[in-house]
Amino acid sequence: MSSRADLRALFRSNDRELRAVDFFADRRDEWVTVASSLVRHIRWVNDPAFDVQDLETPRRNVLVFYGVGGIGKSTLSRGVAEHLVDAGAHGANWPPLDPQVGPVIPVRVDLARDAGTDFEALILALRLAVAELGVPMPTFDIAFQRYWERNHPGEPIEEYLRRRTWFSRFPATRSMPRQMQSALSDVAQALQLPGTAGALVGQGLRAVVRGLREHRRQVRALADCRRLADLLEADPDLEALSYYAHLLAWDLSRVSARNRAVLVVLLDTFEDVGSRVHRDLERLIQRVVWLMPNALFIITGRNRLPWDDPQLEGQLDWAGPQYWPLLAGGSEEDPRQHPVGYLSAGDCETYLCHRLTLGGSPLIDDHTRRLITANSHGLPLYLDLAVMRFLDLYRRDGRAPEPTDFNLDFPALVARTFRDLTADVRRVLRAVSLLDSFSVELATASAGLEHDAPALDLVERPFVDSDHGAPWPYHLHDLVRDAVREADCTSDDRWSPADWQRAARRTFDALGSQTTGERPRLVAALRQGLRLARDYRLDLAWLADAAFRYVDDFVWEPIELPAAAGTALQAPQPPQAPPGIDSPAEALAVTLSVIARRQRRHRGETAEQLRTVLASGQLPDELLELPRYFLAECDRDLGHFDASLEGMRQVAEAGGHLAPTAARGLVHLARRIGRFGHVRTAAEALGPEGRRDRVLGDLWWTQGSMGLACSAYAAARDEALRAGQPGEAALSQACLAYAAAFQDRPRSAEQIARAEDMLAGVSIRWAEVQNHIAALIRDAGVASDLPERADDLLAQAREAGLTSSIAYVRLAMCLHAAVLGHPDQLDDARARLRTCVRGEEFAYLAELSYLMADEEPPADLPRAHWLDGRPQVRARWTAVVQDRRREAAARAVRGE
User: Strand pairing partners for 475?
Assistant: First the structure.
């Protein structure tokens, strides 16, 4: 056990003999589990049959503690981390580790949404932790340096670490960059590369990869890591970064016995990972766990870890008991899953004795301690609330309170704590119970007060948690938040339903006044405002404008409403409304959620859900364009040309917020059927709101005018950046990469890389696929593996329901065959492209497959309306093919 001064309690009393400490209640059983898991882990890793490069053996390196909020999981996680660093951190009650374990390097990462920890920070934390060994991690360092230079161009890693205080907890923030440079210098010297090989690109990268594949003597130690060369050749994106964990595990396995230590990774608040939409982050983290079998992972969270569930196959890389046998139910061998138990009676007694003392003796008497212990059922939060209530009563009355003041269950204790507050503080507490998070300003406005003092008093209470990096820094503990309503039912100044309704309206209006500024606050306001509007039948008001701002940026954070609260004012569900959509707020929330999720789901599923929203009749007229436009967009992607055309027309003619976007959609459809003259005329009328430059870029590449297309796309990108629209900028950049790939391979590689960087911060599935298609086109006629890559991309496009992407992939394969000069292969590619042609739709792409080969299209193929005639278009496209043939021939002469 350990204790430190409890500053909240210390500054609530003038009595200098009174001592309040933040006491750590013993978790001896859990520590014994950690210690025994470490012993088993060491035995497994030290077994001669263990191979860190074995990717098929089931994993036994995950220990899980899970339980309800307030049970002390995070405190346990912090305590374990501290005790692994310093065996005396929690006194003699925790036994020492078995000597066979040896040195341990713990690293603890809080994965809470509010903590702002992303996947890149997690990987950096692992590398910083092992840097304490004082030796380079050469395979990881080489790959990571390439990732860093691609994703953080011009930003030294030491500067990045210095500016982010989160990394200051690691002693190796200064030595780790030097270790990385040492590893790079060694490789550069061994292969006689210039400088330190700091930028693994071009000839330097190829030399390293060639040396690894040939097992050259100078890099033989690195070449023994069988997958290093493949990882260096892969695009250094976030997916590749997750696989670099394999390299870190390899490097750790090669550390000499004198320097070796066991890496223990503590991941706290894991519920904020597993509950995220599509488990994208969880998949990356699970990959790290799988690829680092020589590290022990201790995961704490509210939920049992479901990795043993086969139904998660597809969402996670390894799902099922065959992969994680010790995580399956019924397992009796550690490391496995353990529910975090409530504190024992002895632990509660010890906690209460040490928490408040006067003159070195416990301030809380024996009888009161026994009552608190019995009623707490071992819940640490209950103990903390009881202690703070005891302190407040002691301060108010000048004597210890009676034991009967604590003969209360949890809701009753909250009710008593609630009554001890002043009337204004109770008013603020009620108001903020309506919110997920709040600020002092927001709390004051929600309570309808004219001064901040009650809110300032509230945020000092132990049941209010804080995170000053969040849009609003404070939030009530979930158990307290739920109990406030129950406590309010019996209080003298309780609120009536009308009072709650008025508070909800004040809170809703206050949220609306704080939607300006950074996007995180907009999204947080949307989530909270939608819930209030649904539960209290409020008009949507500012939510309409916020919803349009949300969809403008292409970032797509999830907007999910929790189940309706029991105290909400629920109206009967209209008979015409589909199940689950019974209010305008619910309809808007479903609309935004479906629009966001479409980036990772098939367009057909999205379209069906948007039709359900429209059929509910719940959205007000000014918001109908939201589901209508995105339904039309889905219909376009699915190949439902007429339905998409009608939907776009409705939105454009309505003249609402999305009218310019729908006008662009109509132009896009005209391009699909080859009406290029109409496209040029209509594009000029679109203006910046209608993305005129991007539309012109779409037009010019079809004509073979790649220079004009690139210029137009670059202008669209720059305009979006100036307007603070990262999603539109990333989309335009992906289109620029696509156009550049047809005739400028070196420049297109730069443009593709830039698009990858820009797309990393947004979520636009079509643009991601388009950027991959750009890489296909760049390598057409050059790369031997193009058919396999094309098949992979086709699978991705089909999975998402992107018909245009399928057509563009098949056009790329026609270009590949034309450059190679293989008539049979070209005929086969054309036949596949013709399957995308439906009447006039995409017929222009099939026509291009003939023009680029200087052949006449068949008579049954609809002809496009080319801007300056078919001969000019034919000449430009055949020039693309001829230029690529010359480049391929030159590469062959150079032996590339």
Answer: 465
Strand 62-66 with 337-339, pairing: parallel
Q: Please, what's the b/e burial string for 192-229 (b: 16 or more CB within 10 A of its CB; e: otherwise)?
A: ebeebbbebeeebbebbbebbeeeeeebeebbebebbb
> Mind listing the pLDDT tens digit for each residue in 234-292?
888 999 999 999 999 999 999 988 888 999 999 998 888 864 446 888 999 999 999 99
Instruction: Determine the angle formed by the axes of helices 803-820 and 823-834, rounding to 10 degrees.
Output: 170
User: CA-to-CA distance for 389 and 393, rounded, in angstroms?
Assistant: 6
Residue labelled with tokens 């012109």: 696
**Residue 848: CB partners within 8 Å, gap ≥ 6?**
702, 811, 814, 873, 877
Nearest partner of 539 among 515, 578, 508, 566, judged by Cα: 508
Q: In Å, how far are 278, 594, 636, 788, 870 from 607, measured between CA atoms?
A: 19, 9, 11, 31, 37
CB 474 within 8 A of CB 480: no
Distance (Å, whole) CA 263 – CA 104: 6
Nearest Cα residue to 91 out of 79, 99, 74: 79
Give the dihedral of Cα atoms 83, 85, 86, 89; nearest 10 deg.
-40
CA distance 565 to 551: 27
Alpha carbon distance 866, 452 (integer Å): 68
Can you give 159-221 as a three-state secondary structure string?
HHHHHCHHHHHCHHHCHHHHHHHHHHHHHHHHCCCCCCCCCCCHHHHHHHHHHHHCCCHHHHH
Task: Tell me the C-alpha distance between 147 and 803, whole Å.
Answer: 32
Other beta carbons within 10 angstroms of residue 580's beta carbon come to 12
24 vs 290: CA distance, rounded Å:
33
Highest mean pLDDT among 205-214, 325-334, 610-619, 758-767: 610-619
Long-range contacts of 600-604 (CB under 8 A, 24+ apart): 600/277, 600/278, 600/280, 600/763, 600/765, 601/800, 602/799, 602/800, 602/801, 603/634, 603/637, 603/638, 603/800, 603/801, 603/802, 604/634, 604/638, 604/801
- Contact status, residue 657 vs residue 847, Cβ threshold 8 Å: no
Nearest C-alpha neighbor of 460 from the set 423, 512, 421, 411: 421
C-alpha distances (whole Å) from 792 to each of 242, 471, 785, 788, 796 are 20, 40, 11, 6, 6
Beta bridge pairs of residue 266: 108, 298
Span 32-47, average pLDDT: 93
Q: Which amino acid is at 846?
A: A
Match 């990096």 to its residue by tokens.
469
Beta bridge partners of 753: none
Q: Among 10-19, 438-447, 541-550, where is mean pLDDT lowest?
A: 10-19
What is the spatial distance between Cα 713 and Cα 708, in angstroms, rounded to a whole number?
Answer: 9
Residue 356, phi then psi, degrees to nearest 5: -125, 125
Greater pLDDT, 760 or 742: 742
- Length of the chain as a residue count: 896
- pLDDT tens for each residue of 101-159: 889 999 999 988 666 678 999 999 999 999 999 888 888 988 898 898 888 888 888 88
576 has pLDDT over 50: no
Contact predicate 813/828, CB 8 Å: no
